[in-house]
Each structure stands twice: as structure tokens, then as C-alpha cells.
């Protein structure tokens, strides 16, 4: 094959924008722990015209808006080379990235609308990573390997899982998928290019109290792998690209200690995930570490170490033709033939009561509980008044789900949920990547993979490696099995197209697999094109106004200085007169907020040893009164840091009024005093 890899920053605004994932409007960005990246991989047939693109981006999920804008840019740059059928865009599902990049109204509620800078940085970052991969294409080889990752996940809805038939459950050793599938890429001389790993785990090691933008556990795994392969480079630099992509993670949590009552410390591993005192709002899962930062590193390191082992031992070469199959489907109206006599249908989208309960990884508001199959007259009344009562048809279609948000019948100011959804399979030789538009649970994913594999087998393409890539192309929440749906925990309440959603997807992906196996993909009907709503900027974000420094101070001045001396494992920190980091995001995509620099006696100069993409640094922004704000830079000095003289620097932009109607952004910087790190 011809193979190309690329990585580009897609971080966007790190302040004031709500973070996407926990749907908690109070969880608003207030700084940066690690940068977010889009990682792109292109594989092409050396002679033929066929090629495929796989992108994994450090974002909560790929929205339809992001996908349509990316495809538009690719069309204007490359003509018909990169299209909806051969480009897969997948989100890692970190819950600590900026939100606001959706065109459907439901997602505006917790994201403060459509936030153009967040949307643009994601779209531009994805396109740029594809550009870099496109430019770097060369002859190469692919190898696949698979193995088991231990101690890194639990099923967070085990009572739903137990609703699946016993005969089916008995075929599996665990109630989560522990298998990692890894694709290794090298050039024809054996030089390493990159890898894609698929593994099912929620990137929610960072909980909903976190306000620092970061890529969570899978992002930390990427960081460790890329740091190892791009020796001597700063984080985010170097040619080796390691993507840790999402899979069927719907009911899979990394918080391996399981759910406990925050107030009493007793287990709340019960069907309603509720505590005797304080109810469901007190029931939270904890990770393996002493805090969320350590848990993120532990889970990320586990995933990284398994990937490293699989990468080093990968010897099964992937060869054979490339093919792609894609359809747009009106997901609210799919007829599914369950058997010769029985046909069922999907529903208009709706969210159930337990959606509002959240999960043990991030509890909801108002003390809703999971497993609600009954509505509540109080909330029903509020729903009917504010949002309109669901039609009898929708109520009946979704049974036993009591409907909280009747999104499929809500159209103001735009539809609340997508109706037209992408289904897509890309085959690279013996590897079939199923790009799914949401979060399949463990058992849903198993059923889908099995159905697609048997479809390939029965049409003369045996031995395919089937992998699910999650959170692709458009976000449609969760997909549970029919049996799990009956229990109506969070994942089931968020299965928006009703009880037969999974059966519909299985039927659709079977059709795509059959078309690939019979070499008949050109006969697939493309389906109805999704809408691109005409929205420019609808946002409740505070506008960026002019800023000021305290009396007798200027931007970048030190307010609280570092100590003169530190040891490893201590935290060096400095506080500056700061400015809103959103100013910087609007000025440059590649902006570094901070550096750690070491003094070199040989050259008598400062050398950058870390930037803000490092997981050892933290950048905090806090807004004060009277248009003033502070920035604190922390460096958590790791064991093994070279002794010597160091300093911390900060780079920002402030807004200054130069005329009545004209405000400009002025760059500035600040530096701590020099400090020494002493030998342990």
C-alpha cells in the first residue's frame, strides 16, 4: 500500500466553553492539562485509485456538523479524492474537550449554543492532519495484532448486561470486551510510521469536576507512545503518530474500583445506582488512582503498555484490495425484518428519564435514578409545558422507555436530534472497520461484529478481522441490545431510535458487508443527504472585551513567584497577571501557553524542555473582578528530571481598545525567576 500519517492540533478555546461529555453546564473550561490532536491515516492502493482515510480526533464525538464541514473542505482541496464513503472520522470520546460544535439543538443546551471557535479548530485540525498524511504518503506495509488488556475497565451497567440471554453471556468470559486490536504501519524499509489501536473504554478517568482541557486516558496512551518513538522531540512534534481510537465502549468505565456513595463510602452497585442517603446523586465510581489525575495515568499506561507489546510482536501482514461502503439512512424510519413473519420499526428520536440520571462516571442533576421505566407526573408536566407532549405513536414506539425529551418532534429553532445517519464500512484487505455513529454497548458490539463477520463468511470472504470504530460521523448517543433496553438504565434511555435500534444497524451493516464481499458497493443507494443548517454563531458565551492589569502592573508580571529550589516530585508554580486564553485561540491554532526551559551553561542560553502539550504541566486561568484575570502555571516535576536551573514562561494575548470601534489583540509574555532543581 501507499501509507501516510499526520497529526494536527485541534484544541480550540480552553476557557469559558463548556466541556463536552458529562452534559454538566457547570463544567466549563478553565485551562489546559494536555493538547487535543487529530490523527489521520491514509492507505491507498499503489496502482489503483482506491484509498481510505481513518481519523481519530481527541474530541467527545464527531458531530454531523464537523463531518459535513470537513468533507466540504476536502472537496474544495482534492476534488473527488476524499469523499463521504472513504473518509471515517472517529472521536476518542474524551469528556474534557470544548463543546459547542453541533448543529442539533439538544447539544446547545449544555454547550451554550454553537461555538464557532471550537467548531473551527476541530474542523481545521482534522483537515490539516489529513493534509499532512496526504503529503507524507509513501510505500508501506500494515500489520495487525490483537491481545487482552487487563485491569482497565468495568461494566458500569452490569444489571443491564445480565438481561441478555444466559446462553449468549455464557459464550464470553467477561461483561466487557478486553480485546485490543492494533494496526501497525511501517514504510517499505521498515521505518516506523504509526499505529491505530481500538479498545473499548470510556475516557472518563477525569471526572466532571475537572476544568482543564485534556485528552484523558487514551490521550495519555497516545502521548506515551509518541514520546517514546519521537525521541528528543517536544510533545505534539515528530513524525510518528499513535492513535488510540474508541470502540464499543457504551457501558464500559475505566473507574475500576466501581461505584461508591460519596457521603458514606458504601457500595452502590445496585440496579438503580442509588445511595441510602442522597440518592443517585451520591453514587460515583472511582478509578484505580488516589485522584483523577493519577487514575488517568494508570489506565492510560495500561493501555499503552499492551499496545507497545502488540506493536512489537505484530507479524500478521494485512494485504488485499481496499473497499468502502457508505449509506445515509433515515434512522427514525427503518423497517427491520426480525424473521420471516416479524417486521419491526425504529422510532423518531427521544431520550428517556434515565438519560437525566447520568451514570456512575458522571451523575445527572435533580436526582433522577437509572432504571426508570415509569415517568413522573411532576416532570411530565414540566416537559409538556416547555417542550410539548410526545405523540401517542412516539410513546408507544419507545415503550418501556418513559420519554423525557421528545427530541424527534422538536424542531425549534432547528431539529433537536439527527434523523439522517451515516453507516459505513471500510475494508483494508482482511481488516474491516465498522464506523458506527454512537456508543454501542459491549453486547451490542459483539452482536454487530458477529453478524458482519458471518455476512462476509457467507459471501466468500472468510477470515475478516472485524473492528468497531466508535463515535463516528454523527452522534446518536447509545445503542443497547433489545434486552438491555427493557431495563432502561442510562444507556438504554439514551438509545434514541427505540428498542429495535441495534437490529436496524445490524441489518444495515450486513447490507454494506455483503456489497463489499460481492464487489457491488457502487449499487448501494447513497440515501438522503443530511442537512447543513444555516447557523453562523448562536452562543451564550461571554463576549471578549477589553482587559486590564492591576495598578502598577502589566500583563505577564509575576504575582506569586516560584521558590528558589525544588526536588523531583514537587510542584513548581508561578502566578501571572493574565488575560483570557480565548484571545490566543482566536489568534493562532498553534499557540503555546507555557514553556518549561532549562539553562544551558555550554551555550549560555535557555532551551525549551516542555510545552503545554506535556502531561506534567498545568495551565490554570481564573477570572477576577474588573476585567482582570490571573494565570497559574504548574510543573509537576517528574522523577528522573535532570538537576539544573529552570524557569517557567507564559504566553498570552490581551484585548486592547485602540479606537471607539476597534479592539486589537496584543501578544505578551511573562517569566518566573530562575529556580534550581536539586539532585534527589
SSE order and pairing:
Blueprint lengths: L1 E8 L5 E6 L7 E5 L4 E8 L6 E7 L6 H15 L8 E5 L5 E2 L7 H6 L4 H20 L2 E11 L5 E2 L2 H4 L4 H4 L9 E9 L4 E7 L17 H14 L11 E5 L6 E2 L4 E4 L21 E4 L5 H22 L2 E3 L3 E9 L4 E3 L5 E3 L5 E2 L5 E2 L2 E2 L13 H11 L4 H7 L4 E3 L14 E9 L2 E5 L3 E2 L1 H17 L6 E5 L8 E2 L2 H6 L2 H4 L7 H17 L40 E3 L4 E2 L4 E8 L2 H7 L6 E7 L4 E7 L5 E7 L5 E8 L7 E16 L2 E10 L3 E3 L3
Parallel strand pairs: 5-6, 11-12, 25-27, 26-28, 30-38
Antiparallel strand pairs: 1-4, 1-8, 2-3, 2-7, 3-34, 4-5, 8-10, 8-16, 9-13, 10-11, 14-15, 17-24, 18-19, 20-23, 21-22, 24-25, 29-31, 31-35, 32-33, 32-36, 34-35, 36-37, 36-38
Helix pairs in contact: 1-3, 6-7, 10-13
Cofactor: Zn(2+)
GO molecular function: metal ion binding; N-acylsphingosine amidohydrolase activity
Family: Belongs to the neutral ceramidase family.
Amino acid at each position: 500500500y501507499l501509507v501516510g500519517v499526520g497529526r494536527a492540533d485541534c484544541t480550540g478555546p480552553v476557557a469559558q466553553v463548556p466541556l463536552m461529555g458529562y452534559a454538566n453546564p457547570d463544567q466549563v473550561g478553565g485551562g489546559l492539562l494536555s493538547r487535543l490532536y487529530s490523527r489521520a491515516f491514509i492507505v491507498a492502493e499503489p496502482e489503483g485509485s482506491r484509498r481510505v482515510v481513518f481519523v481519530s480526533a481527541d474530541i467527545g464525538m464527531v458531530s454531523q456538523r464537523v463531518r459535513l464541514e470537513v468533507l466540504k473542505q476536502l472537496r474544495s482541496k482534492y476534488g473527488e479524492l476524499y469523499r463521504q464513503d472513504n473518509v471515517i472520522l472517529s472521536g476518542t470520546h474524551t469528556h474534557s474537550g470544548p463543546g459547542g460544535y453541533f448543529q442539533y439543538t439538544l447539544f446547545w443546551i449544555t454547550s451554550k449554543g454553537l461555538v464557532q471557535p471550537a467548531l473551527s479548530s476541530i474542523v481545521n485540525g482534522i483537515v490539516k492532519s489529513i493534509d499532512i498524511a496526504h503529503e507524507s504518503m509513501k510505500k508501506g506495509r500494515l500489520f495487525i495484532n490483537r491481545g487482552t488488556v487487563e485491569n482497565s475497565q468495568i461494566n458500569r451497567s452490569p444489571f443491564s448486561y445480565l438481561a441478555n440471554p444466559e446462553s449468549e453471556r455464557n459464550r464470553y468470559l467477561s461483561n466487557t470486551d478486553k480485546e485490543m486490536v492494533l494496526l501497525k504501519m511501517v514504510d517499505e524499509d521498515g521505518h516506523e510510521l504509526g499505529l491505530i489501536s481500538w479498545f473499548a473504554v470510556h475516557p472518563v478517568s477525569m471526572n466532571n469536576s475537572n476544568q482543564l482541557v485534556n485528552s484523558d486516558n487514551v490521550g495519555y496512551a497516545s502521548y506515551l507512545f509518541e514520546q517514546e518513538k519521537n525521541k528528543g522531540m517536544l510533545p505534539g512534534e515528530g513524525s510518528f503518530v499513535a492513535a488510540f481510537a474508541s470502540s464499543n465502549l457504551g457501558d464500559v468505565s475505566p473507574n475500576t474500583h466501581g461505584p461508591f456513595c460519596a457521603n458514606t463510602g458504601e457500595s452502590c452497585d445496585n440496579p438503580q445506582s442509588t445511595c441510602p442517603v442522597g440518592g443517585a446523586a451520591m453514587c460515583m465510581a472511582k478509578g484505580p488512582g488516589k485522584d483523577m489525575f493519577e487514575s488517568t495515568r494508570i489506565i492510560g499506561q495500561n493501555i499503552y503498555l499492551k499496545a507497545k507489546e502488540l506493536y512489537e510482536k505484530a507479524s500478521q501482514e494485512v494485504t488485499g484490495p481496499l473497499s468502502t461502503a457508505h449509506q445515509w439512512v433515515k434512522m427514525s424510519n427503518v423497517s427491520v425484518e426480525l424473521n420471516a413473519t416479524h417486521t419491526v420499526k425504529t422510532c423518531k428520536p427521544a431520550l428517556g428519564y434515565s438519560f437525566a440520571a447520568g451514570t456512575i462516571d458522571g451523575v445527572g442533576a435533580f436526582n433522577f435514578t437509572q432504571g426508570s421505566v415509569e415517568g413522573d407526573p411532576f416532570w411530565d408536566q414540566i416537559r409538556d409545558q416547555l417542550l410539548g407532549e410526545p405523540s401517542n405513536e412516539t410513546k408507544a414506539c419507545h415503550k418501556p422507555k418513559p420519554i423525557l425529551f421528545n427530541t424527534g418532534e422538536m424542531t425549534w429553532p432547528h431539529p433537536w436530534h439527527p434523523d439522517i445517519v451515516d453507516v459505513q464500512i471500510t475494508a483494508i484487505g482482511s481488516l474491516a472497520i465498522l464506523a458506527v455513529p454512537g456508543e454501542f454497548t459491549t453486547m451490542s458490539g459483539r452482536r454487530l461484529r458477529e453478524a458482519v463477520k458471518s455476512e462476509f463468511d457467507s459471501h466468500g470472504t472468510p477470515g475478516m478481522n472485524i473492528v468497531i470504530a466508535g463515535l463516528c460521523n454523527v452522534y446518536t448517543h447509545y445503542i443497547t441490545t433489545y434486552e438491555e433496553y427493557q431495563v432502561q438504565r442510562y444507556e438504554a434511555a439514551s438509545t434514541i431510535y427505540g428498542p429495535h435500534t441495534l437490529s436496524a444497524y445490524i441489518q444495515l451493516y450486513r447490507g454494506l458487508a455483503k456489497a463489499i464481499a460481492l464487489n457491488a458497493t457502487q449499487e448501494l443507494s447513497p440515501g438522503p443527504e443530511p442537512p447543513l443548517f444555516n447557523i453562523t454563531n448562536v452562543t451564550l458565551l461571554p463576549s471578549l472585551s477589553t482587559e486590564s492589569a492591576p495598578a502598577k502592573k502589566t500583563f505577564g508580571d509575576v504575582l506569586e513567584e516560584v521558590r528558589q529550589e525544588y526536588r523531583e516530585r514537587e510542584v513548581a508554580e508561578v502566578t501571572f497577571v493574565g488575560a483570557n486564553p480565548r484571545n490566543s485561540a482566536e489568534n493562532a491554532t498553534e499557540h503555546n501557553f507555557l514553556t518549561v526551559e532549562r539553562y544551558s551553561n555550554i551555550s549560555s542560553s535557555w532551551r525549551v524542555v516542555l510545552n503545554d502539550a506535556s502531561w506534567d504541566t498545568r495551565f490554570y486561568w481564573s477570572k477576577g473582578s474588573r476585567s482582570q484575570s490571573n494565570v497559574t502555571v504548574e510543573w509537576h516535576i517528574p522523577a528522573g528530571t535532570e538537576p539544573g536551573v529552570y524557569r517557567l514562561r507564559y504566553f498570552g494575548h490581551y484585548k486592547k481598545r485602540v479606537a471607539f470601534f476597534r479592539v486589537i489583540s496584543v501578544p505578551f509574555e511573562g517569566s518566573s525567576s530562575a529556580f534550581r532543581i536539586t539532585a534527589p
